[in-house]
Structure formats: structure tokens, C-alpha cells
Amino acid sequence: QRFKQWCDEQNKLTPAQTDDKHIAFPSRLSVEGYTLSRAVIMAAESATDFIGRTLKERIMFFDGGMGTMIQNRGFDEKDFRGEEFAEHTLPLQGNNDLLVLTQPEAIVEIHKQYLEAGADFIETNTFSSTTIAQADYACESLVPRLNKVAAQLARRACDEVEAAGHGRKFVAGSVGPTNRTLSVSPSVENPEFRNITFDEVVAAYIEQVKNLILGGCDVLLVETIFDTLNAKAALFAISEVFAEDPEKFPRMPIFISGTITDRSGRTLSGQTGEAFVISVSHAKPMCIGLNCALGATDMRSYIADISNCTDAYTICYPNAGLPNAMGGYDETPETMSTHLYDFAQSGLVNIIGGCCGSTPEHIKAIVDKCKGVTPRVPPGSVDPEKLLLSGLEPYKVGPDTNFVNIGERCNVAGSRKFCRLIKSGEYDEALAIAKKQVEMGAQVIDINMDEGMLDGPKAMTKFCNLIASEPDIAKVPLCIDSSNFEVVEAGLKCAQGKCIVNSISLKEGEEDFLKKASIIQRFGAAVIIMAFDETGQAAEEDGKVAICKRSYDLLREKLDFNPQDIIFDPNILTIATGMQEHSKYGEYFIKAIPRIKAACPGARISGGVSNLSFSFRGMSVVREAMHAVFLYHAIKCGMDMGIVNAGMLPVYDQIPEKLVKLCEDLLWDRDPEGTEKMMKLAQEMGPGAKKVEEDESWRALPVEKRLEHSLVRGIDKFVVEDTEAARIQTDKYPRPLNVIEGPLMAGMAIVGDLFGQGKMFLPQVIKSARVMKKAVAHLFPFMEAEREAHNEALGLTDVPESEMYNGTVVLATVKGDVHDIGKNIVGVVLGCNNYRVIDLGVMTPVAKILAAIKEYNADVVGLSGLITPSLDEMISVARELERTGVKIPLLIGGATTSKMHTAVKIAPKYTQPAIHVLDASKSVVVVSSLLKPNEKAEFVEDIAEEYEEIREEYLESLEDRKYLSLEQARAKKLHIDFGAKPTPVPKFIGVKSFEDADLNRIKEYIDWKPFFEVWQLRGKYPNRAYPKIFDDETVGAEAKKLFDEAQAMLTKIIDGKLLRANGVIGIFPANSVDDDIVCYKDESRTESVGTCFGLRQQAEKLDKGDPYMCMSDFVAPASSGVPDYIGAFAVTCGLGVDAMCEKFKADHDDYSVIMVKALADRLAEAYAEALHQDVRREYWGYAPEESLDAKALHQIKYQGIRPAPGYPTQPDHTEKITMWNMLKPADIGIELTESLAMSPAASVSGLYFAHPDSSYFAVGRITKDQVENYATRKGESIEAIERCLAPVLSYED
Q1: How confident is the model at residue 646 (pLDDT cuts 50, 70, 90)?
Q2: 3-state secondary structure at position 289
Q3: DSSP secondary structure string, 736-802?
Q4: Among 86, 216, 589, 811, which residue has the fewest nearby CB atoms (within 10 Å)?
């Protein structure tokens, strides 16, 4: 189409010239002067394909601030008007978009400046080119021209720059946010008011998008989104345009860029970054990210959040810092490029550029700095097994999610009170009902306005607009509930988050079903589908399954509807009606659940629970018990969510046994007389069975049982009284804290167990938490008085606050989680033990945590969370703590956390201790151990060993371990910018040997811990490590005796010169080639002395962002042009061991034989440690001032590593042959046996890597494709390689 357009414009194409004729074509597909046939041009790679391919290969670049450049040109009113608008009625200065008509050459020149600076994309100058925004200038009629001409000018700039040989360039059609907001009222006094409608915004965007496409843009950029509902309107408009005329308006990539308006981490309309991503991802954008409002430093954590929660490419174009007092931007090109280079190096971005304040100089600096950095590799999928919803905050429903409570009380058909309030216009009171449901634990709010005397669409619009003004309600997703689809659409047009629609069905046939589903899909909502078809409602099990399966297949095959967004309601119908055909309705529903889920992968099951018990309306106790029993069984069979007043449900285990039996008999149709029996019981329970007379017999129980009863049932009436009764029993509870650690924690433990078993729901847990808070609040003044008395007794009343405490602990419930009872109790317990506690509250962003650590000079930071998504957020926080160089221990706690998760997923992200704390009572012990210098090292080491064992056991337990292909693993390799951070240049190059090294010096480097393990002596914490093992009750005495005898033997060896220590090192110029390292004789790098072959990790990582490592990643690639180096060594302390052992054997002294061998092994390892230190300080010389003691050396506190062939980093023993060829260790007495073992046995060898980013890792198991590739590189047969690598093969052949 472009080819034809260009030729038409040039008047060089006649009908006879359309095929196989060659003409000069200064196209973006060629360099000027090339002649391309029409066929070649038409077959060339499309913009979409080119962009998609390039994003996999490199970081791409956006332009900078068009407004900044326009402002710099100093245009006045006359310039803005030009000749065409000289008589326009309103001032036009400031209408930058109009300049495409009045100053087109200036706009083209600005575009070209950015392109020549290295930008791949330029944005059209159409940020405000909608009828909505142009109304401020009375220029609405110009909108089609503004957009089309702007795109043509940008296209022209790209063509001219391409023709000059700058590579392929692209036009991004800028679709701005408009100057109206759909989610926020412009009137504080009238929160439901909007000065524009969703439909009006859609219409404006349709006009803009059509003309951008006609003008020749390559991508559509919906940008600077401060209100997600505006963005959803833009995306809805784009989908409408694409569907209207696919030939005239072909589909093209969509880029979406939101705006975090301040350091709260939210958009102007209140959404978090992840909630924003969930809300717009239905449009399947090629790229999603952030721009404007903030500079790069403030934007970093937010773009990291976006990067972690999307499988799209990420785009980021921040301002050049924050505006100064005069409204300008001070961040220099160098500073801005350095910040964005950090984004790139951290794997956060695929496209970067600049927004306000950035100029072509900024873009050039960014391109120069970042052009060689490997782009972010998007995860294959994010939360692939989860239904993703959002309000102001994200909400995820997955296999590990407990039952989702959809609050039912905002339903005019189901709540008389709510209906009355809506009909009488008392919307504030109606909002209070919604807020109460959220407070009681509803994770989604159902809204239904289906009532004959209501204007449904109007009522739905007003109520949803009011909810948007209440963050405490708007934070959760909405369920738009109506049998009138016009009402459904009205609700969707008011919700910026991702909603659920309840419901559609096949009742009116397939065409109607698919039409409604398509509209829901364009709004990005999930949908509940009722088990109805053209013949009616499915009542029996088979019918429910058949209709759900048919609906599912239609949605998947006709609309490619996301299966995770499909929810079935197979109809919970009323039982115990007295009609036999109704008696199995409950059983049919429950038995249909697993069948539907098996037939419809990814779909979820919901239902209106109150329907079940409608026969007993007015009998609240009976109905609530029936609901609890039903849910207990339905959830076990796979029911995911339900519309239920969960706050009114009894705890399953607390329902009277007789009532449970009757409920189960009715549910499973076990007793033909069940209905009559239930009616009789209801009558016995009181008038109408609306209330159960409160049985207070439990008040006679011991105080501990009373507190337990109150906590489990959520009763706060007596909790203060009972807490006080426990406190004054000082014989049992000497301190107020003991009441918390004793009966109160015991009661909450039962609550946790019941929650985990599905016998309690989140609303009930929240009730229990409130009871607990009330009890703790009563005890708090007594604990404070106790602490003050303690400080006074110690004379600490006048000392600085920082010296009054044992340490400072920062506590936070992580972002996305609002539950804090556990954290609060930990804070109280630590406070009572004289620790200063800085409680940051709930929903805490990582930036706030980092700031608090710095502000309060914290000694420990603790993270808490109750819900499963908090686990991922804790991983992100650990990463950020590591990145920013925080050096304090990290504690992990909360109901959803575990030692396993902490060990496997969190601890590996943080080099400081990351420790799971089981409950509040353990927190003091852990913090105390971490802050006592004489205990910390051993405590941390003990935890590290335990967690390493947990990780190994976990990985070994994975039955279906997945592997990446070698090509995929290489694509996700560890990327180091060797240009910015090169390996230090060695002071010495070549090979150097050492004979008869000083054993007196070497013995000071001995790590004695493995020595005791050889003798199977292992103490228990805190007496596991040397020298504390001597204090162990069980093995201490024997360990001390053994150690003394070892010292005597060591003295004998050294004094008698019975063993000799020889070593050799080599340092060589080197560079990597793919997974191998080529070593050179000298700096000329012309003669190779050997190639060290590497193996790459292939086992799928638990964290999809982790690199797949090979030791070659630590050496600069030959293609980089950066010179690099590698070292190698071999040492022995075994020369003389055989002679000593022969003598002891002759004397039948086996004990001394073992002792000599054990000491020789320790000396060899010690010599390797000592020689490595010499290399770092002298021969390579990159750490001349290093002064680490032996303990720090054993903990690898230095820069660099020394992995050995045959061990986890390179499990191929045959690689020793290369080292032996390079170093000639045989010259100093170290030989390789036929099986490639070293002789003497007390010998150590390995490689030296000096780059600061080098680290130890385990290759793990590998697949056949890598074995074949490795064999080819080494010139060996596959069979030979398989023999060498048998222990790490992932297959059996």
C-alpha cells in the first residue's frame, strides 16, 4: 500500500507498470539508490514483524519530548496561527498539535533530530488531537486533519532519515489521555458526576485512531494514562476500528504506557501498576510500560513491578528528572542515560526513551549508553493458571487461592435494605453496605440493580461512579450483575479495573451469546456463564456439564476468549422443597464441579449460595448452617467462588452436630424425611429460627478456653474481660506478654488451622483478627509500663533513644496485602523485649521500606503477608534490598509464608540472611541471635546450611522438571556489561610454579569444620562450628580430644617436613565464544593455548527472571572487543602422605593413617585458599589491600571464584586435561590418573575468575541437545560425552 501510495504521488506508476518493473524507490525498505521490484517490496518484512523480531534482539529507542523541543523554539501566537488560522476566534498558542498544520517543517525537523540521535520510533504530534481536547481551542473540526497530517509528517521524517542510511524507522501514533477523566468527578461536592461519558470518549478516540492509521503510523501508542478507564475507552475504540474495516484499518501493534503520578506508586485514578496492567492486558499490547510524571530514579521500582507482571515487552520513557521551581528539567543527558542504563542492565526494559524535558541530546546519550545491552526477555506467561482481576489493586484467583467471597449485599433483588436505600436515593447509606462487605472480607463486590421500579442503567452508573470515589471499596474488583445487558454495559463503562460480568447464557441462542461475550471481551472483563440453553435451565448433573462444555467451546473457538476469564455458574438450585425431583439439586451441583473443570481447562466455578436454602427463608440459623455445610463440600470438589454473605456464615466445626447431620442429609438426599426434621428443629430453636438463644455455658470454662472460644467464633463481647482475667494470673503469666504468647496465640493457631482446612473463610478470620487486636490493645499499656520500668531500673531514661534499645526492627506488610494482625503481634513481642519497632503498616511499597531502613538505621527488616500474592512481592522486595546494597537480615512471616518458600525462592535473591519466622514467639530468639556478634555468624551459617538442604530436597522432589532448549537457555544467559565493568587487567601473565610452600603459613588457612565431619562429629546449634563444637554436650569432649591430637600430628608433620606443598598458577588472556572460553598465550591473542568448554544450566528456574548460567558468562565475549582474562591453578599437600601412611600401616595404626590423610586434605584446601589470596593481592593484583581473615575467606567474602572441573559449575572431569596442558602440574608432582583423579589425592585444582559479577552456581541436569552440541564443540563422540556427564543427564538412553 505504501509502495502504491508513493508511486501515485510521484506519478510514476501506470497500470502497465505494476508487475516486475524496477524503479528507483527511496523506501524505508532500502538504501537510496537501490532498485527494488514491486514483488520484492511487497514481500518485505512488515513493520509489525520487524519490530517484534528486533525487540527480541536488542533494546529499541523512543524519541524525547516533542513539547520540550517546541517550547525551545519559542513560537508565539502568530506562529501558532499561521496564515490559515489568522482570524481564529480563540487564542491558539499552546495548542502544540496545531503546528503540524501551521509549522510542518519545524515538526519534521524535530522528528528528524530524534531519529538521527538514534531513536527507532517517533511519536506523532497528536497527544491532544481529539475533539475533547481540541474543544478548548474550538478546533474540533480539525481533528481528522491533525491526526492524518501528523502521521504523514512523521512518516516523511522516517523516510528521509532511512534514505540517508540510518536504518528502519517507525511512526508511533500518539493517543493521549484527553483532558477529561472518566473515573474521577470534577466536582468534590458531587462525586458521582462526570463531565463526559465513556461513549463520548470512545467516539473521540475512534476518529483519532482512524486518521492516524490513514496517515501511515506503524503502531498505536496509548500513552500518559492517568485514568485507566480513559485508556480502556481508547482500547475499546481501537478494537472497534480494527473490526470495522480490516483492509482500510489493518491491525497493528498497540503500545500502552501508564503514568504513576507520584511516589505513592499509583495512577491519578488510584490504581497500582499491577492493577493497571491487569486492566488493559485484554488488548494484548505488544508493549506496556510507564512514562511522564517522574524521573527515572523515582520510576525504577514501578517499572520493575510492570516488568514482573506482564508477558508483553516493556517500554519506559521518563521525564528528565522532576521539574524545578521554574517548571524546567535539570537532568543532564549523561545523568538520565546512566539511570536508564541501570534499567537496561537490570533486565527491566525493551524500549526506552524520554518524555518531558528530554531532547535529542538526551536520546543520543541513552542510545550510546544502552545500545549494546541485552533486552529484557519477557516471561513466557505470567500467572498462567490464574484469573486476574483488579480494582484499584490486583486480585488473583488461582489453584492456591482460598474460596473467593463475592459480597452479595449490594443486590436490590437480594437485600431489602439495599433495595430500599437505592430506591429512596440514599446512596451514601448504600455505599456503607458495600464498604462493610469489604471490611468483612469480601474479595469482590456484586452489584445488581434489577428491580422493576428502577432505571437500571442509571442506578448502576451512579452507584459505580460513587464507588470510584471510595478507595476502601474501589480497591476490590466489581461483579456487574444483571439479566439486562444494557445494565451490564453501563457498569462496565464505569469501572477502570477488570470486572466480572454476571451473567450471560445460551438462553437466547449462540448468536446472542457470542455477541455479548465479544462486548465483554472488548471491555476486558471476566464472565460468569449460567448453565442455561435454548431449552431452559440445567438442573441435573449431565445437563450442567453439557451446557458448560458447549459454552466453553464456543468462547474458545469463536472468540479465543481467555479460559482463565471464564467462570461457570452451574445453577445452585433450592433443595428441601418437598418435591422429590428437587432433592438432589445440591448433589448434582457438587458432582458436576470436577467434571466441568476437567472438560473446560482453566475455567472456574461460582454460584449464588443463598438459592440452596430458599425453602427455609426467614430461618437464618438453618440457612446459614446449610450454606456452611454446602460450601465445605463444594469447595473440596473445586468450587472457586460464590455470591455469599460470608460474614454471616458459622464456622463449620462450631455448628451443632445435630444440625450438621440434618444439613448433610438434605444435601446428599440421605433421608426422605429430612425436610420435616429440619423444620421441626428450626421450630425448636425459637420463633422463626431467626436467632439462636446465646448459649453462654462456655463462660464457665477456664479462661484459656474462653479466649479460644472468642477468637474462633469472632466474639469480642468478653475478650477484654477474659484477657484481664488471664493477665492477673501472674503465677501462670508473669508478664502481660505471656498472655499473648500463650492462650491468645494458641487460639489464633486454631483459627489458622481451620482456615487452612477450608472450615473457616476469610471474613471469619478477619473477625477473629479483630478480637485478637482488641485483646492486644488491652494488654499494651501494661507492657509499655513494664518496659519503662525496666529502662528506669537500668538507668536508661536520659540516654539517647538509639541507645535505649537492643536494636531497631522495621516491619511491613508488603504491597498488595492489607492484613497485619500477625505483624502487629510480632511488633508487640519485640517491643516488650526492648527492641525499637518501626511499623510501616500495610500495603507497603518497597521504596517506603528502603527509606525507613535508611532513616531509622535499622538492624533488621521484617516482611509480613497473609495472601498468596504476597509471596511474589516478598521476592521482589528481597531483590530490591540486594540491588540497593542493604546489608541487614530479612525476616519473613505471615500465614501464607513457609520455611520452604523462604529457602527456595526468597533467600537466593538476597546475600544477607533471609529467615522464615514461624510465629511471633520465635521472633525474639531470631532477632537476638542475629544481633549478638558472638552468635550471629554461627546462627546464620546454621540457617544457610538448613536452607541449602531444603532447596536440594525440593529440586530433587520435582517429578516433572522442565528444561529449556540450549538455544532458549543461551537467550536467557547472564548478561554482563564488560565495557562498563571490565575484568581487572592482571599484573602477571603466564605460568608460575611454587615448591615447598610454607606449611606454617598454610595451616592458618585451614577450615576445620570439614575435618570434624570426616570423623562424623557434628555438634548441635549453637555448637556446630569450630571452635564452638568443643562446647557441645554430646560430641564436645571427643571433638576437643581429636583436635588436640590433630594439632600434635600437624606439628610433627611441619617440624619434620614430612609433607611438601607445591603449586602452580597460570593467568592467560581470554575471551568467550558462546559457552566456551578461548585462552591465549599472550596479549597478542593470536595463539591459543587451550579452550575451556562450558556447560549451561537448562533446568527451568523457579523464578522466570533468573539467568541460565555458564562459566563463560563471566568472561567478555570475543565479539565485544573487550580484552579479558582467566586463571588456573593446581596445588598439592600430599607429597609424602604415602610414605607416612605406609609407616603407620606397618605399625597397624589405622587411626594415624586416617588422621594424616584428613590433615593433608585440609592443608591442600588451605593452600588453595592461600594461593588464591596471593593471586588476588599480588599476581593478578586486583585486590592489593585485601585483609580478610581465614573465617571471611571460608565464607567467600572476596571478589572472584575458583570453580573446579568435575564439580557443579563444570561437572566434566575431562576439562582437567586442558588445565594440565596449560599449567603442566606434572612438573611439580601432580599427575592425572586414568580416571582423571589427581595424584597425590590431597590435591586441588580449578580456574580463577576475577570479574566482580562472577559467582558459584550448579549447572544441574542437562538435555540431549546440549550434550550433542558439547560433543561437537569438543570433537568427541556423543557416547563418550554421555559417559563423562552421566550424573547430570536429564534423560536415560
Answers
A1: low
A2: strand
A3: HHHHIIIIIHHHHHHHHHHHHTTSS-HHHHHHHHHHHHHHHHHHHHHHHHHHHHHHHHTT-SSS-HH
A4: 86
